[in-house]
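=== RUN LOG ===
request id: a7f3
mode: sequence -> structure
chains: 1
length: 297
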Amino acid sequence: MQSKSNSDINHEQIELLEYAQKRIKQKKFLYYHFVLFLFISAISLSLDHVFNVSSDIIFLEYSWSFWVVFIWFFLLLFHLFKVYVNDRFINKSWVKNQKNKLIKVQKAEIESIKQKINIESKIKAESEVFNKKPQLITIIVAASENNIIGNDNKLIWHLSDDLKRFKNLTKGHHVIMGRKTFESMPRALPNRTNVIITRKKDYIADDAIVTNSLEDALSIASDDPQPFIIGGGEIYKIALDYCDRIELTRVHDNFEGDTVFPEIDEEKWIESNRIEKKKDENHNYDFTFITYNKIKR
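=== RESULT ===
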């Protein structure tokens, strides 16, 4: 590798040399300390034994020479620990490595925060684009974890908050549905323009407009800033190519049923909002309100 300059290599070599010289000095001083300890200990013990030197300050049954040797021995141990443990492992290199590790952790956290900010900015930008559109064609649906939305043309669960949300979102708008979905209801939804899609040419429904295709239904709702497509499974499947937003209630359980909502392709849709709900006396399941916006290409 020739990308590294000679000055960088020399600098590293100088650092290694300086560290080696420092270690030699430390070990030399430790050796002198050990020799001095032996010399002073021998003299102290000899004086104490030969001349029986004593002092009134000395306490307990040990002589002054014992305490000199004892205390100095622990000083020597401390010096030994400092040279072979502390200065060997907790040196400049160790401190530098620890600092680099901490910097790396901080950089990773900063990158994570940047990514979150970028995602939030992208979601906000996508939302602003959708909110400025002249018409926001929206699918509204409740589906289980395994994407079941109904069985035998009936709802499987009853979630009062989900029904309230459906009512609040669709009120005053066009609601587009298949014939079977319309027939599963006791009557046309009030305070909305009900639009039914059916292949039956002579189909008639009270308080509803009958069409033969999704394109015709959307044409009827062309003046509505946000028409809603409310089912069933086949209509949802076709509508995914036309709609701009999905208002999904994800019911956190698996069910058996004959009507399925298509899998949401994360390469085409981005989550822009999420509200989690826990089961309680009015709701038998945990569920989440999720808003998806179609990714603009």
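=== NOTES ===
Helices lie at 6-50, 64-89, 92-132, 160-170, 179-183, 214-220, 233-239.
Residues 134-294 form a domain with the Dihydrofolate Reductase, subunit A fold (CATH 3.40.430.10).
=== END ===
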